What we know:
The complex is a heterodimer. By secondary structure, chain A is α/β, with parallel strands linked by helices. Chain A has nine helices and 13 strands. Chain A has helices at 43-51, 94-104, 109-118, 134-145, 164-179, 191-195, 215-222, 267-275, 291-304; strands at 3-14, 17-28, 32-36, 58-63, 79-82, 152-156, 183-187, 200-205, 208-213, 226-232, 250-252, 257-262, 281-287. Chain A has a six-stranded mixed β-sheet, sandwiched between helices. A four-stranded antiparallel β-sheet of chain A has the order 11-12-10-13, covered by helices on one side. In chain A, a hairpin with a 2-residue loop joins strand 1 and strand 2. In chain A, helix 2 packs across helix 3, helix 3 (109-118) crosses helix 4 and helix 7 packs across helix 9. Chain A is globular. Chain A starts with a strand and ends with a helix. Chain B is mainly α. Helix content of chain B is 81%, strand content 0%. In chain B, helix 2 (19-38) runs antiparallel to helix 3 and helix 10 (216-226) packs antiparallel against helix 13 (248-272). The A-B interface holds A 48, 51-55, 71, 73-74, 76-77, 79, 81, 83, 85-89, 91-92, 96, 100-101, 103-105, 141, 144, 154 and B 2, 5, 9, 12-13, 16-17, 83-85, 87-88, 90-96, 271, 274-275.
Amino acid sequence: MTSTVRISDVTKSYGQVKAVRDASFTLDQGELVxxxxxxxxxxxTLMKLMLGxxxxxSGAIEVLGDNPAAGEFAGxxxxxxxxxxxxxxxxxxxxxTQAFYARLKREPVAKALxxxxxxxxxxxxxxRVNTYSxxxxxxxxxxxxxLGTPRVLLLDEPTTGxxxxxxxxxxxxxxxxxxxxxTVLLSSHALTExxxxxxxxxxxxxxxxxxxxxxxxxxxxxxxxxxxRLKVAGLAPQEMPGWxxxxxxxxxxxxxxxxxxxxxxxxxxxxxRATAAGNAVEDVDVVxxxxxxxxxxxxxxxxxxx
Amino acid sequence: xxxxxxxxxxxxxxxxxxxVLAATLLLAGLALSLTFLGSAPTxxxxxxxxxxxxxxxxxLTIFLVPLIALLISHDAIVGEMERGTMLLLLSYPxxxxxxxxxxxxxxxxxxxxxxxLGYGAAVGALAATGSQIDNDSLLAFGAMVGSSVLLGAAFVxxxxxxxxxxxxxxxxxxxxxxxxxxxxxxxxxxxxxxLALDQGRSxxxxxxxxxxxxxxxxxxxxxxxxGFANVSTFAGxxxxxxxxxxxxxxxxxxxxxWTLLPLGLAALAFSRREx
Lengths: 306, 275
């Protein structure tokens, strides 16, 4: 694996405020990385640093072999960026805008215009951008980010304003690009969407990287309990099944459901017990900690640490 | 290449926004009215009409062209930053100086088009009404149009410098209005006042020349009102034309300097901007 983006000990301060503190990570080819964090956690700052729009206070950045802080931009032909709240010159039409950006990347204009259909802009592409809705601007933003064959895609909140159908198409497109070897870094608040798709998650809090790894790795690190939900027949309200261990947290959810918090290593044991002969279990659901819960966990952890 | 792509887009946008149309119509309308109304007091007897037009049009240009140039240029950088379009543009494989130069060429093309067409209408109208136009007058007129474009270029560059330095569009607009007032109106009055007070005691001719070159509008005025003998007689500046040591190449260099220096500084300020 070759890395496309390298961030080493990067700090960016705005006066007293440190937007990013000592962040280090490397992104490899073919990775789909989710960058998550509160507003103001430093996600956008990190992307701007990678683009050379701002310079780091200390530390080094390398993107596709360029040092963006020194104004090098040869690699940007293979880089796609979708800013948060993307905006375009209102007087031009979608097609004119896309053609302009294609020329800057030395891409054939005809191919670039096909992208407009791929993101479902269709007939609206002949209208001026100032008539566009937020969702249509976002589609145009995606179309320009996908120009050429990007080796690095930086997407800042890419799915805001997209309808569910286009969201699906969007994730299909970026999954295809990642499979083809592109590095995709996307920040989002829609954690449930990212859960199944991101191969790796980087969690930022107040400019500090608090967690970095695949969802499974994060689950192992966080040691959050897996919830086992059982539908048990013939149980009185408030009553817990007799086989449930005393040291595990159990609760009743509604009429029939019993929920048990299982520590990662006791998961199998508990399932064995529940399904042992004689227990009236009708149905089982195993719910691993979601990205939401992992995120909350790592934030809590970083807030407690001095 | 990138510079030309950006210039082409600026021109395209200016056409779309009707900037080109508005500027051309404004300049043509004023040029035509000056051509016909302006010749009323002198009449047409024995006076070369085009020379009179050069005098009146160049006086008008001093007010109008800087204003149009500053209007186009003051939000070139800070405006795009505020609208968020600069963020995306700079993520493309373009250098910041290319963005600035591209915009400059685009805006200059718009201004040149409006000036040539607008003022050209005046010559066209004179020729159509059967006025006599000789080569000397035509040369003076051509120089007037050319130097007007150069004056515009200087003010576009000054507008960029302001735009690259300030934080928001409102400030840029305010500063540009202030600069316009200063360079177009106040400077000459102040200069006149100082000269009147001084009575030629401490301000020598070379100091005066330096003061005239320190303002692009004065350099422009001198080019057009003293540069051509046929014109300077009508401008009432024939006396000054004989005494001044500021030749046309010097004046043109001053205007060029007034373009390149602010443009260079704007590029420097822009390259250090964080957004």
